[in-house]
Amino acid sequence: MSHSKPLNEVFSYLSWVHAVSGATGSVVAMSVFYPLDTVRSRLQLEEPERRKAKSTWAVLKQLVSEEGFNTLYRGMVPVLQSLCISNFVYFYTFHTLKAIRGAATGGNQSALTDLVLGSLAGVVNVFTTTPCWVVNTRLKMKGLGLRIKDPSSHYDNLLDGLIYVGRTEGTKGLWAGAVPSLLLVINPAIQFMVYEALKRRFVPDTSASFFAIGAIAKAIATVLTYPLQLIQTKLRHGNSDKNLELPPDTDMIQMLLIILKKQGAAGLFRGLEAKLLQTVLTAALMFMTYEKISHFVMKILIRAKK
After folding, report:
1. Measured at the alpha carbon of residue 240, what is the angle toward residues 234 and 242, in degrees to the nearest 5?
2. Which CATH number goes with the domain that contains 270?
3. What number is the average pLDDT over the span 217-235?
4. What is the pTM of this model?
5. Where are the alpha helices (DSSP H) in the chain?
6. Residue 127 in contact with residue 84, Cβ under 8 Å?
7. Handedness of CA 279, 160, 150, 124 (dihedral sign)
8. CA distance 144 to 150
9. Where are the alpha helices (DSSP H) in 158-268?
10. Number of C-beta neighbours around residue 206 at 10 A
11. Cβ distance 59 to 43 under 8 Å?
12. Distance of CA 267 to CAs 227, 228, 270, Å?
């Protein structure tokens, strides 16, 4: 294989098509199911006593009743921006690595290969996009009194937030929650492994089939990694969370022990129902949209070459 071959795969049109399709699909899906993400965030960050409602639908109604309909879409713009960047990076990296390996091995793929490539893509994604998620997590909960000191009052959008957090909290603040995020690269890796395995097994060709296997893949990944996702969200929100009375510089292990002490094992799975509902539906719609867009663009490129 020539030295230019890997470079050609890195800058190939196919990687760009997958990246743009994945980013677009994620934005469409999150826009549709964003209120469910709001419920998930509130259940993860608020005191357990604050939300007596047991079901996601009941929490939705409670939020609208107490704070108005607009609260369901609080912080939506920075979340969509971060999600678009994150999925672009992930899809681009995953499919580039897949293409490079395929060129080197003749195209043979396996579940283990997808897991490894998905994990590598996740690591790249974490180092690239964690600051965006730190800022949008804080913007999403802005003005709700969940932090003793709430610096998010000093910024209203993603760019200003990145500048402010970088200036006031430095690298540590921008990459808060990066350690559980690195561990959580296994979540999209498992998701892609299951998704690609199901695609190879059943060869889906309809929107409903892509939706179904996307939902199954995300459900499995979410259940297996949820406690880490909960800790990640709390660390991103900041160690001044007054609900848990966190000591300065709380790390992942300390956060785990504090949650277990104050809320028990059930505290590690608080908001799981809302998270499952939100992520499964969002991922299913995202994969369906991604497949349709990528197939459409591929057909255009094939026709253009003729």
Report:
1. 85
2. 1.50.40.10
3. 86
4. 0.78
5. 4-10, 13-45, 56-67, 76-105, 111-140, 158-174, 178-183, 186-202, 207-237, 252-263, 272-305
6. no
7. positive
8. 9
9. 158-174, 178-183, 186-202, 207-237, 252-263
10. 10
11. yes
12. 9, 12, 5
Rounded Cα distance, 244 and 259, in Å? 8
- Cβ 265 vs Cβ 5: under 8 Å: no
Could you tell me if residue 306 is inside a domain?
A: no
Whole-angstrom distance, CA of residue 303 vs CA of residue 297? 10
269: burial class by Cβ within 10 Å (0-12, 13-18, 19+)?
Answer: middle
User: Is 15 within a domain?
Assistant: yes
Long-range interactions of 71-75: CB distance < 8 A, separation 24+: 71/38, 72/34, 72/35, 72/38, 73/34, 73/35, 73/38, 74/38, 74/140, 74/141, 74/142, 75/136, 75/139, 75/140, 75/141, 75/142
Where in the sequence is the domain holding 261, given as residue range(s)? 4-301
Residue 76 falls inside a structural domain = yes
Q: Find, among 36, 41, 23, the residue nearest to 232 by Cα.
A: 41
Give residue for tokens 């001044």: 240
Among the residue ranges 98-107, 127-136, 193-202, 273-282, the one predicted with the least confidence is 98-107
Distance CA 211, CA 36 (A): 18
- Residues 68, 29 contacting (CB under 8 angstroms): no
More confident call, 149 vs 114: 114
